[in-house]
Automatic annotation (TrEMBL):
Subcellular localization, as worded in the UniProt entry: Cytoplasm
UniProt name for this protein: Phenylalanine--tRNA ligase beta subunit
Cofactor(s) required for function per UniProt: Mg(2+)
Boundaries of every FDX-ACB domain copy: 690-783
This protein's GO CC annotations: phenylalanine-tRNA ligase complex
Family label: Belongs to the phenylalanyl-tRNA synthetase beta subunit family. Type 1 subfamily.
Main location per the UniProt record: cytoplasm
Catalytic class of the enzyme: ligase
Native organism: Candidatus Nitrosopumilus salarius BD31
Any GO MF annotation of the entry: ATP binding
Domain TRNA-binding: start-end pairs: 39-147
UniProt record, GO biological process: phenylalanyl-tRNA aminoacylation
Residues in B5 domain copies: 398-473
Length: 784
């Protein structure tokens, strides 16, 4: 919300300078994000009037002007502006004036003395470009300081409002808070009912009364839509970040900024039948003021006439019924649309308007009629015309429920004791009505404070009006003891440190993803849909972390980062039988060369086993892997990860079709694991270290190529053959000398005894048992 200090001080004028006022607003919870001057510093520039203009004797494009600046004698000024003419009033910088880039001195221009300079908006630092002199109206006072005439000593504030403080999306709302903060009196704009000088009205039918509890409409005939908007109104609008369009539109925008109530004016002669407030019908469309066609959904609230929708309620008007300079009769609308109905509608249609921004957060329903009267009075004053009586359609308006505020709870939350009178005075400053009770107050907030719903909201108001800086920082008093750390569980920080130590970088992505990602990449055909997504491509909750990681990878590749090692820890969300489950996961991604480019190593890309080593580290070398199929992973390079016979995640290479979809030149390796399960670990146990050397034997067996190596190793370990300490694969061979459909597996076998040195016969006996087991279970044959 951007606003002008001068405009605010017309409502409330505390004895604070601009900086102190900005600090007071920030300390009261209305954070001043930016504070700037309207114009750069300059001086000695006044309103001047050209009283004569003759051609320069030695230059075709220059004029020799006599300029009245309110002194005894006019100034002779050489001017080359194309719009310089007799009778023009414009800024005149006198000798000695300091402009933004230079100082004005007495000079000779082509042999003729010049005692000043006529100025454009660019030379005053008001605009970046200008085609000629800045022209003033004919009623501008000659000799008046331009800074004073244009209110250029004004300050612009931009406040960063939290979503619950939509009441401050207007000058009136901010003024109320300044009054409460400083105690300065507030002067409200005088709003008087317009004189009814025409009997003409227009029929209104509010079909959806829950969505539109109040609707006010008024016919104003005989208006001059091409009338000029007053300079004071243009300044107020433009200094609030809007642009001047036409008198009627400017007036509705002015009231929006002043009172916080959006309004809309229809060209009465373009309406076809009565006004209806209803939901859109299936297949309806509307052409909007921004020249776009909107396809309406059945939950879009519209203003319609007999021809169909003529405006998106609370968002934007339609082009066919818009006001233009030829308009003579208007139908002025002021309504209250509930935030629940408005939420997300503008965003779904790719729109963002000042009206929708306010209606989504809540507009003061007690101010709807007053805004209508205010706008009508301004239209009659500026554009003329005849006002008809107001058509009112008021249903069941929201209620501000009473909220209990307890002294004990204030002290508990804020840590300070406030007297009964102090709390009562704060509530009065805020304009809250209340009844006193034995332990506190029963408070009812006014209609514009729709954020007051519970006791915590009132305590926040008490804190900010009392002053956050007045709440002492008291160190807590507590018995500090060391908490027991479970030996069988590691921390999330350990998990992150493990990945960081391997060169991975942590990223944090949205928990919301695109629906198509969920249905394809995560193979989730029942994603959790968001009712009010922040963007159309973030419409469902993620069930996997991979989509976010791939999005970050694409972002980096587009910026010429050709190597990436990324990980993320976060929650994933699943819907099972209409129940929702949140699961903590860790996921990683590697892409590009396995090592940074260097002269001593040949470059190679990351492969499946690089990522498997990472997973082994995270699972304390206890994970097992089984071939499986996942929609996002390569059919031949995908493994399901198990820990203690429980499936905990996936490991594999990105499926080629998604590699193509993401436009990835190289393969991408991914993993995703259940965080809670991998942080569980077995307690350490003591095993005696043998003092005797181990005996190593290497064997090579031939088995069917369909048999997995892990299955063989698991079977050997389960048999618990005496003396056998380790079985490890070190070679696989298929080719010449090996029957088709078979493969040769070479294993390293380590045997050891903790009490003595093994002799050959004992080692051979253990090997014989091993070979017998392999033959019986896998039909393995010892390779010669």
């Amino acid at each position: 919300m951007q606003f002008s200090e001068y405009w605010l001080r017309q409502f409330v004028n505390p004895s604070l300078d601009a900086d102190a006022l900005g600090h007071a607003l920030t300390m009261a919870g209305l954070e001043v994000e930016e504070q700037t001057f309207v114009a750069q510093p300059f001086n000695n520039v006044v309103v001047g009037e050209i009283i004569s203009a003759e051609k320069h004797p030695d230059a075709d494009r220059l004029q020799l002007c006599q300029v009245d600046v309110g002194e005894a004698e006019p100034l002779q000024i050489v001017c080359g502006a194309p719009n310089a003419r007799v009778g023009l009033k414009a800024p005149c910088a006198k000798v000695g004036a300091n402009l933004t880039d230079f100082k004005i001195k007495e000079a000779k221009v082509r042999g003729v003395k010049s005692f000043g300079m006529m100025c454009s908006a660019k030379e005053l630092g008001l605009e970046e470009e200008a085609d000629g002199l800045l022209e003033f109206p004919s009623d501008a006072v000659v000799g008046q300081d331009v800074r004073e005439y244009l209110d250029l000593d004004d300050t612009l504030y931009t406040i960063k409002l939290t979503p619950n403080r939509a009441d401050c999306l207007s000058i009136l709302g901010i003024a109320r808070d300044v009054m409460a903060i400083t105690g300065a009196p507030i002067v409200l704009p005088q709003v008087t009912a317009a004189n009814i000088t025409t009997e003409q009205t227009h029929l209104v039918d509010v079909i959806e009364q829950e969505a539109c509890p109040s609707y006010y409409g008024r016919v104003i005939t005989g208006v001059n839509a091409s009338a000029s908007t007053p300079d004071w109104m243009i300044r107020a609008i433009e200094r609030s970040g809007l642009r001047s369009i036409s008198a009627i539109v400017d007036i509705t925008n002015y009231v929006l900024l002043e009172l916080g109530q959006p309004l809309h004016a229809f060209d009465l002669d373009k309406l076809n039948g009565k006004i209806s407030v209803r939901f859109a019908k299936k297949g309806e469309q509307i052409k909007l003021l921004n020249d776009t066609e909107a396809n309406l959904a059945e939950d879009d609230l519209v203003i319609a006439d007999d021809s169909g929708p003529i405006a998106l309620a609370g968002i934007m008007g339609g082009e066919p019924t818009s006001v233009n300079h030829q308009t003579t009769n208007i139908f002025l609308e002021s309504a209250f649309f509930t935030p629940e109905v408005m939420a997300g509608k503008a965003r779904r249609l790719g729109l963002s308007t000042d009206s929708s921004y306010r209606f989504e957060r809540g507009v003061d329903y007690g101010n709807t009629k007053q805004a209508m009267e205010r706008a009508a009075a301004l239209i009659l004053e500026i554009c003329g015309g005849h006002a008809g009586s107001i058509t009112e359609k008021v249903g069941r308006l929201p209620e501000r429920k009473k909220v209990k505020l307890r002294y004990a709870r204030i002290a508990s939350v804020l840590g300070i004791q406030l007297s009964k009178d102090d709390v009562a005075n704060i509530l009065k400053q805020l304009g809250f009505s209340f009844d006193e009770t034995e332990d506190g107050f029963v408070v009812q907030a006014p209609s514009y404070r729709f954020d007051i719903e519970r006791e915590a909201d009132l305590i926040e108001e008490v804190a900010r009006l009392h002053g956050y800086d007045k709440i002492p920082a008291i160190a807590p008093v507590a018995n500090v003891t060391m908490l027991p750390l479970p030996e069988a569980k590691r921390s999330l920080n350990w998990l992150k440190d493990s990945l960081l130590s391997k060169g991975y970088q942590e990223v944090i992505t949205y928990s919301f993803v695109e629906e198509s990602w969920e249905r394809t990449l995560s193979d989730n055909q029942n994603p959790i849909m968001l009712k009010n997504p922040i963007a159309s491509n973030l419409s469902v909750m993620r069930s996997s972390l991979w989509a976010g990681l791939l999005d970050v990878l694409t972002y980096n590749l587009n910026r010429k980062q050709e190597r990436a090692m990324l990980f993320e820890t976060g929650s994933t969300y699943h819907c099972n039988d209409n129940s929702y489950q949140e699961t903590a996961k860790v996921a990683g991604l590697c892409y590009g060369t396995a090592n940074p480019e260097q002269w001593s190593d040949a470059a190679r890309d990351f492969d499946f086993y690089d990522m498997k080593a990472v997973v082994d580290t995270l699972t304390h070398q206890q994970a097992t892997y089984k071939r499986d199929v996942h929609a996002a992973l390569h059919p031949g390079q995908t493994a399901r990860v198990y820990l203690n016979d429980i499936a905990i995640g996936w490991l594999g290479k990105l499926h080629p079709k998604y590699q193509q979809q993401y436009d990835l030149p190289k393969s991408t390796i991914l993993f995703e694991l259940n965080t809670e399960l991998i942080l569980q670990t077995k307690l350490a146990s003591y095993t005696e270290v043998s003092k005797f050397l181990p005996v190593r034997r290497d064997i090579a067996i031939v088995v069917d190529e369909t048999i997995e190596v892990q299955t063989i190793i698991d079977a050997v370990n389960a048999e618990k053959i005496p003396l056998l300490q380790k079985v490890q694969l070190f070679d696989i061979y298929q080719g010449k000398g090996i029957e088709e459909g078979k493969k040769s597996l070479a294993f390293l076998i380590l045997m050891q005894d903790t009490n003595k040195t093994l002799i050959d016969s004992e080692a051979e006996a253990a090997i014989a048992k091993l070979l017998k087991l392999l033959e019986n279970k896998f039909n393995a044959q010892l390779r010669n």
